[in-house]
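Onboarding guide, step 5: your first structure request.
Type a short instruction followed by the sequence, for example:

Predict the 3D structure of this protein.
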Amino acid sequence: MSHHAAVRDISGRADLDVVLRRFYTAAFADPRIGPFFTEVAGTDLEVHLPRITDFWERALFRSADYRRNAFAPHAALNAAREMTAADFGRWVQLWRATIDGLHRGPNAERAKAQGERIALTLHKRLAGADTELLRGEGTVGFVPLAALELSSMRA
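The system replies with structure tokens like these:
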């Protein structure tokens, strides 16, 4: 058996809760995107986490009931302080790293891909770009590029 045998896939809400807590702990502490959560939103994680977990449980397993508008809080945040491609790139970088540090498998891969798609969608909508572009392939380039740009800036 390989040494990866102990690392299992995301299998339900309990796993998502751990992933999201670890992710938001990193995001809040991040010098680039942390202030969006702590200064602009004043996010109380204990209040928001169950809703965010509902969102991801629905996205990955179609099981939770998430009826909120996920775009609205991000639009309010962006009105207070504009979120750039590099900010979204950093979010994706932290999201991928958090999942990779905890899980491996098809659901983990789907969670990473969906995180990138969601970041792209939010960025395009907030930037006021034509959302029709989202249907075309090849428009997902910006997130990994922004993430690469950021990782190379860590001098």
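Each response can be followed by summary notes, for example: The CA atoms of residues 80 and 86 lie 17 Å apart.
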